[in-house]
Amino acid sequence: MLYDTACPDDGNDGTPNPKIGPWCQGTQEQCIVCENDPNFKKNGKKTCEIFLGALSAVQFNNQCKKNAMKKACPSFCRPVCIKPDCAADAISTKKFKIGRGKFNCAKIGRKNKCDSTIKPYKKNILASAKCPTTCQLDGCTIP
C-alpha cells in the first residue's frame, strides 16, 4: 500500500508500521499514488489515456465517478492528482463569465478575480482553475 511513497513502512513490502511516524496526510508527503495502473485495460483500450480520451465529456465524468476508475486512472480521475496546464491561459483568449462581466485570463489577473466563480457551471469552478498561470496556481508562474 505504501510502497514507493515517502510514508513510513516496515521497509520490506510497503506494509504500514504503526510505530513509525508521523503519518502522511496528502500529496505533500507523497502518500497519494497518482500513477495510472500499467495493467489497465477496458473495452480493448490498453491505457487510461486512450480509453478516457475516446469518451465525450459527460462519459468521461461518469467514468471518473467510479471508484475503480479513480484507482486505475488517478492522474485523470482524482482531483488531487490532476496537474494544471500552466501554458493554457497564456495562449487563451477565451472569455469567462464572472458576475455580470466577461473576463479573459489577463483581465482576471488584473482585476484580482482568481478566487471568483466562473458561471454557468453546475459545479463551482474558480477562475484560477481556468487561468492557472495568471493566478499562479500550483507552481505555475508567469515567465
Question: How would you describe what is shown here?
Answer:
With 143 residues, the protein is an alpha+beta fold. It has two domains: 49 residues, no CATH class; 52 residues, no CATH class. A two-stranded antiparallel ribbon has the order 1-2. Strands 3-4 form a two-stranded antiparallel sheet. The chain is globular. The chain starts with 47 loop residues before the first helix and ends in a 13-residue tail after the last helix. The model has no long low-confidence stretch (mean pLDDT 74).
Short description:
Helices cover 27% and strands 7% of the residues. It has 143 residues and is α+β, with helices and mostly antiparallel strands. A two-stranded antiparallel sheet has the order 1-2. The chain has a two-stranded antiparallel ribbon with strand order 3-4.
Question: Secondary-structure blueprint of this entry?
Answer:
Blueprint: H1 48-53, H2 57-64, H3 67-72, H4 74-77, H5 88-91, E1 96-98, E2 101-103, H6 105-110, E3 117-118, E4 125-126, H7 127-130
Antiparallel strand pairs: 1-2, 3-4
